[in-house]
Design a protein that fits this description.
With 145 residues, the chain is an alpha/beta fold. The chain has one domain: 3-Layer(bba) Sandwich (D-tyrosyl-trna(Tyr) Deacylase, Chain: A). Helix content is 21%, strand content 39%. It contains two helices and eight strands; from the N terminus they run βββαβββαββ. Strands 1, 2, 3, 6, 7 and 8 form a six-stranded mixed β-sheet that branches. It starts with a strand and ends with a strand.
Length: 145
């Protein structure tokens, strides 16, 4: 399981021209599910991203988490994060979870995140989404479970 975290000033998701989710300052998280991933890994990854210290403290150091600043978390399913890009000129998806398994684990991550953090929003699984954001820094990290 891979989570691409972007520290943002704001982010929103649109589907068919309608805003379906948005946050102010916080994390935009793209979640890629691989075929051997589990609910246990998802729970650990959610806990880790909520505690990951990438926001500035009073001295300007990355010492605060999204939880510490009461920031928003926007979770978006991102199938292409599970791509194998080690060789060739075209991504392979043999490492990605099948759609049913991926959706089940994404839904589990949504439930777990909702239980652990109050300020959350979500994209729509497998939808054609347009994402708007203002990356703050830019600050981007790839977490793997």
């Amino acid at each position: 399981m891979k989570a691409l975290l972007q520290r943002v000033r704001f982010a929103k998701v649109e589907v068919d021209g309608l805003c379906v989710a948005e946050i102010e300052q916080g994390l935009l998280v793209f979640l890629g599910v691989e075929k051997d991933d589990s609910e246990e890994q998802a729970a650990k990854l959610i806990s880790r991203l909520l505690a990951y210290r990438i926001f500035a403290d009073d001295e300007g150091r990355m010492n605060k988490s999204v939880t510490d600043i009461n920031g928003g978390v926007l979770l978006v399913s991102q199938f292409t994060l599970a791509a194998d890009t080690k060789k060739g000129l075209r991504p392979g998806f043999s490492t990605a979870a099948d759609p049913v398994r991926a959706e089940n684990l994404y839904d589990y991550a949504v439930e777990d995140l909702s239980a652990k953090h109050a300020n959350v929003a979500f994209g729509r699984f497998a939808a054609d989404m347009q994402i708007s954001l203002l990356n703050d820094g830019p600050v981007t990290f790839l977490l793997e479970a």
